[in-house]
Amino acid sequence: MKQNTLNRNDVINDIKRTISEIAKIDVFDLDDNLKIREELGVDSLMAIEIIAKCEKHYTIHIDESKLESVETIGDFINLISMLVINK
């Protein structure tokens, strides 16, 4: 996917698809307010896989210190969107 054609909705849909595939949860059940660890049951290995897939797909680097404040799907979407769109 070309970076100059990306918009926030593309990023949101891509991230939700990635989380859905890795966490084995229907994409339509993913709400921005859901807590990634507590409510979706995403463990540390799944989180690493989600992060790695996003980094590779968008050719970005996600600073671990920024991940500390991520609790919900919406938080993660906002972080990735900022990195991708401001790239």
Write a structural description.
This protein has 87 residues and is an all-alpha fold. The protein contains 4 helices and no strands. α1 packs antiparallel against α2. The relative contact order is 0.20. The model has no long low-confidence stretch (mean pLDDT 91).
Task: Name some characteristics of this structure.
Non-ribosomal Peptide Synthetase Peptidyl Carrier Protein, Chain A; mainly alpha; 87 residues
Strands, helices and their partners?
Elements (H helix, E strand, L loop, with lengths): L7 H16 L20 H15 L5 H4 L5 H13 L2
Helix pairs in contact: 1-2, 1-4
What's the CATH C level? Mainly Alpha
β-strand percent reads under 5%
How far apart are the termini? 14 Å
Could you estimate the helical fraction of the residues in percent?
A: 55-70%
Overall pLDDT level = 91
Tell me the total number of β-strands: 0
Question: Which segments are poorly predicted (pLDDT under 50) over 5 or more consecutive residues?
Answer: none
Multimeric state: single chain
Largest β-sheet summary = none
Shape, per Cα inertia axes: globular
* CATH-assigned homologous superfamily: ACP-like
Task: Provide a brief overview of the structure.
The protein is mostly helical.
